[in-house]
Amino acid sequence: MVTSQVVNTYPLSSYSFGTKEPKMEKDTSVADRLARMKVNYMKEGMRTSVEGILLVQEHNHPHILLLQIGNTFCKLPGGRLKPGENEIEGLKRKLTSKLGANSPALVPDWQIGEGVAIWWRPNFETIMYPYCPPHITKPKECKKLFLVHLSEREYFAVPKNLKLLAVPLFELYDNVQRYGPVISTIPQQLSRFQFKMITN
Amino acid sequence: MVTSQVVNTYPLSSYSFGTKEPKMEKDTSVADRLARMKVNYMKEGMRTSVEGILLVQEHNHPHILLLQIGNTFCKLPGGRLKPGENEIEGLKRKLTSKLGANSPALVPDWQIGEGVAIWWRPNFETIMYPYCPPHITKPKECKKLFLVHLSEREYFAVPKNLKLLAVPLFELYDNVQRYGPVISTIPQQLSRFQFKMITN
After folding, report:
1. Which of A164, B28, B51, B171 is disulfide-compatible with B78, CB 3.0–4.6 A?
2. Are A169 and B130 in contact (CB < 8 Å)?
């Protein structure tokens, strides 16, 4: 039985950041995205996606790294697994695609940790739930969020069309309007961990 | 590393329910409650409280057992630890006080499981956060929520002034108005578990 788990977090200033070629969104509208989801479902069945929660600290408070697209929309780094792909390996592949340098020697040795939440999409719609609703026998997507344990120093290469933000838990909490239901409840899901803030 | 944990849940009909003497609330108003909290803080320091999430299933969907006071207010079974008391032992004591039969032989052998959330009260006020806010060096309360693994059959004795309700996750989700911030986000905190619904 685990009653508290310690997670080391390092200052944002421990990490260095560069840029790389843009990673364009595959869809230009929500309607396009849901249509593509439907086509893929017909071919491959339920979509499984994986996302990483990367933590840093500032002012003795945990912050989460989010990718910002344009001026408003924020998302966790991650993405869709290939059919049959292992979750952990798939998340590492996606993190490297989103945040790894082009030179393999500089890509972080991603340490994928605890599963913190699972969200279900019952229909080809934007709404997701933190459970598979009763009577839904064929959910369309299952999205899994994992803690990613960062080392003391890392280099991140951010696609030129995106911004990487370190957002404090107190900004995410109770802010569904800005961050949506998945990201705004990460503070609750992380509350069981004890964050050990390591300063240099 | 744990990517999914299986939790067995049994039908509500597996459990039997009786009544026992009333357990009155110690305070008759929120103001009284906060005043008592302040007096206790002066004597004993930060209050630690523990609450249990007891799961049953109905219609192939997890339900949580909540104690209802009057017609609106719902709470998880649990309460305040004595100074220096062990969390697990304290939660067992509180569960027995709230739901155990008067006859010791009939009291469930409480299996306290995973810690699922920790909430902090920074001031002598009703608002709590799923993190200790920055710059708060002397929080007034720390509340810890634990999963309680029920056996296939149990007998619960419910104080006569309270009602015991089995509330589905889909009713709690996104329902902060009715259940408050702590209980309404339990579905997100439980989403990482895989519920194995055992039918008789």
Report:
1. B51
2. yes
